Amino acid sequence: MTCENEIQINGETYIKKGTLTISKDVVLVRTYSAGVHFGELVKRNGKEVTLKNARRIFYWDGAATLSQLAVDGTSNPTKCKFPCSVPEITLTEVIEIIPMTIKAIKSLNGVAIWAR
């Protein structure tokens, strides 16, 4: 997916400076006790959120905070631990929902599936 503010050079995607393209559908969610997940927002009802095609962020590196992860993605994907995606998940006790940029979505989706 290439947005109007992106250009590809030698296989690398660059985003025009000062431009953050926010996805309306993909969010990063922090819960009180179930950790952090990202995926396509299906439904929100108070503190309950349903995501589809969601991955849990077990451990991340290459971003200082979840806010930076949602905007910039990770600069160190090989150190991140994201298990496989699930078709759908309902999370309760959601305390933070952060819309993600296209850049961050591409970055996080590029993290290899982690399994023990």
Q: Could you characterize what this model shows?
A:
- With 116 residues, this protein is mainly beta.
- It has a single domain, classed as SH3 type barrels (Roll).
- Helix content is 13%, strand content 45%.
- It contains 2 helices and 7 strands; from the N terminus they run E-E-E-E-E-H-E-E-H.
- The strands form 2 sheets. It has a 5-stranded antiparallel sheet with strand order 6-5-4-3-7. It has a two-stranded antiparallel sheet with strand order 1-2.
- Strand 3 and strand 4 form a beta hairpin.
- 26% of the residues are buried.
- The mean pLDDT is 89.
Explain the layout of strands and helices.
Elements (H helix, E strand, L loop, with lengths): L5 E4 L2 E4 L6 E10 L4 E10 L2 E10 L8 H7 L13 E6 L2 E8 H8 L7
Antiparallel strand pairs: 1-2, 3-4, 3-7, 4-5, 5-6
Helix pairs in contact: 1-2
Secondary structure tally, helices: 2
The arrangement of helices and strands along the chain is EEEEEHEEH
Number of strands: 7
CATH architecture: Roll
Structural class: mainly beta
CATH C-level name: Mainly Beta
Q: Into which percent range does the helicity of residues fall?
A: 10-25%
The N- to C-terminal Cα distance equals 31 Å
The number of distinct structural domains comes to: 1
| Overall average residue pLDDT | 89
Radius of gyration: 14 Å
Proportion of residues in β-strands: 35-45%
Instruction: Going across the biggest sheet, name each strand in turn.
Output: 6-5-4-3-7
CATH topology: SH3 type barrels
Largest sheet: 5 strands, antiparallel
What characteristic shape results from the CA principal axes? Answer: globular
